[in-house]
Design brief:
The protein is α+β, with helices and mostly antiparallel strands. Helices cover 20% and strands 47% of the residues.
């Protein structure tokens, strides 16, 4: 029974002779109950994501929209004896390819440049960071309407930021498999900042049953900075006098680079939904970048200078 029907039944069964204050109490209780049902259902849907990736092969065409830029990619994902392989190849713009096999990811572009890094560094490729969103205190999840994507029935799930320090997300999960077929990132005003959507997709069960991969549990590190609205330092690396700190709230991430510099400078950039701020005070240069509101980066930089 849909949550709306529960609410209608509560309203119908409410005694007509009770005081107005009691009516309000019944209504408030009914709303809270329905909201909890929505939360439970949406949590169950999000919980299907990791198993969906682990137990399905899929192949299709993906459209990625970032601001005014639109890219089309061919995507092929396979599970062979529990080992995941993923290939993403651009069909528009500069030829680029990303390949994931086992525990590593390789990315190359026209010209022969090749980059290799651990698969754990980018959980977004398999959407595992969304699987535990229901337990993240910085967001609330909500069951929304049903829709169709690439000719398949989907259930829409809203992952709403609890404040203006981070963005919200909207997911279209395939009803049959649980795979995300469309994801939209919404800015602090509720406008679409970035979205990807499958325009074509073929989904088949993988041979055998693999154990769903658990979302990576990032280890919180001791931070030299004050906590910024739920963002914690989960990784750091020093190289050639520059230190890179990686902040995360479980869904969004921010990179902070700290290095010596005698320049007094200040700059702001924005590209493909990613904001960046640079600040040099004459002795140290700070650069903060992430798919978060500019105000969050300003807060990060303010805390570092303290």
């Amino acid at each position: 029974m849909r949550p709306l029907r529960f609410l209608l039944i509560l309203l119908i069964l409410a005694p007509s002779g009770v005081r107005a204050e009691e009516d309000g109490g019944w209504l408030d209780s009914g709303k809270k109950w329905v909201q909890q049902l929505w939360r439970d259902d949406s949590e169950a849907w999000l919980g299907r994501i990791n198993a969906a990736v682990a137990n399905h092969n899929y192949k299709g065409v993906l459209v990625l929209v970032q601001g005014a830029e639109i890219n089309t990619l061919a995507v092929e994902h396979r599970m062979d004896n529990g080992v995941e392989s993923l290939r993403m190849r651009t069909l528009s713009g500069s030829p680029r390819e990303l390949v994931k096999k086992g525990g590593r990811i390789q990315s190359n572009s026209l010209g022969g440049s090749l980059q290799s890094f651990p698969a754990a560094a980018t959980g977004q490729i398999t959407f595992s960071h969304f699987a535990n969103a229901a337990g993240n205190k910085s967001y609330k999840v909500r069951l929304s309407e049903k829709a169709r994507v690439a000719g398949r029935a989907t259930q829409v799930i809203d992952i709403l930021a609890e404040d203006l320090w981070r963005y919200s997300y909207r997911l279209w999960l395939d009803t049959e498999s649980g795979l995300p077929l469309k994801v939209v990132t919404l800015d602090e005003r509720g406008y679409a900042l970035e979205q990807f959507v499958f325009t074509q997709i073929d989904i088949t069960p993988a041979a055998g049953k693999a154990k769903p991969a658990k979302a990576p549990q990032n280890r919180e590190l001791k931070s030299p900075f004050k906590e910024v609205k739920g963002f914690r330092v989960i990784a750091s690396e020093s190289r050639a006098g520059s230190t890179h700190y990686l902040f995360s709230d479980g869904l969004a991430s921010i990179s902070l680079y700290v290095e010596p510099s005698k320049q007094k400078e200040k700059a702001q950039m924005r590209r493909d939904g990613v904001n960046g701020l640079m600040l040099g005070d004459g002795s140290i240069r700070y650069v903060a970048m992430g798919k978060v509101p500019v105000a969050t980066l300003e807060k990060i930089l303010a805390q570092t200078q303290r």
